[in-house]
Amino acid sequence: MSYLRLGRLPHTSPVSRWSLRDPSNVVSACISVLVLVTIVNVIFTLHTVSVLNELLPQTPHVHSYVGDDHPSQLPLELTSVGLELESGEGHFSLYDDDDWGTLFPSDGFVALGPNNRTFLVSLYHQFHCLDIIRVGYVVNRTHAAEHIQHCLRYLRQALLCNADTTLEVDIPQISPDDGKLYHTANGVGSVHRCRDWTVLRQYMLEHPSTPFE
């Protein structure tokens, strides 16, 4: 009977073991730890910078007012105010040129930037279009239709942009045409959330456009 001696298996290589006694292993371990710490530090730094950027005020871009480098909005803060709609009877009739003229503290253009570049403020473009439709209807001016069509398209888009969600009370009325009851509303008494147009008006008076020579 034959016996196998306990110990190394025949025809096998000795198993190598990782040991801290080997200087090269110590160096590799230190490098791995340093790389891991560096990665964690970079991630933490990027996160901190991101948080600080959200908390700190951003440096505003200074526009040159050359070409397309200009603000899209008038640089003016307007507080929120309420406007209760009224019937308006007695004012702004079709034939009252003086009342309609009060809508324009200037020609609607404002001078901005170091070289006084002029821009039209949209509110006054919208007022202008309302007045054009009024005048076109009253005097039936020759070639007014094209201008009125432009104004109707322009106002449609301006109203869409504002998307006023103020609720107006339903006042059901019977139609004299077919005797049926229909939903109607006149908007009187509804309070709309607006921006303070009086501040804008004062700004326009203080920053008129430069007239052509």
UniProtKB/TrEMBL annotation:
Keyword Heme: no
GO molecular function, one term: oxidoreductase activity
UniProt cross-references to InterPro entries, sorted A to Z: UstYa-like
Pathway the protein acts in: Mycotoxin biosynthesis
Single Gene Ontology BP annotation: mycotoxin biosynthetic process
UniProt entry tagged with the keyword Transmembrane helix: yes
Membrane spanning residue stretches: 26-46
One matching Pfam family: UstYa
Domain of life: Eukaryota
Keywords: Membrane, Oxidoreductase, Transmembrane, Transmembrane helix
Family assignment from sequence similarity: Belongs to the ustYa family.
PANTHER family membership: TAT PATHWAY SIGNAL SEQUENCE, YALI0B05434P
Protein name per the record: Oxidase ustYa
Lineage per the UniProt record: Eukaryota, Fungi, Dikarya, Basidiomycota, Agaricomycotina
